[in-house]
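Researcher: We plan to redesign the surface later, but first we want a full-length starting point. Tokens attached.
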């Protein structure tokens, strides 16, 4: 189980993916980074 947790924590995302998700979250009404993270 700890190996799964480690791989989740170490996953890297492409910058474009982060930007697209953040923009979509803001369009849907997210007003803070916490709300953007919940949208993810």
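Model: Full-length starting sequence:
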């Amino acid at each position: 189980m700890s190996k799964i947790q480690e791989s989740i924590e170490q996953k890297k995302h492409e910058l474009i993916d982060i930007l697209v998700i953040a923009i979509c979250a803001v369009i849907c009404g997210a007003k803070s980074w916490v709300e953007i993270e919940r949208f993810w």
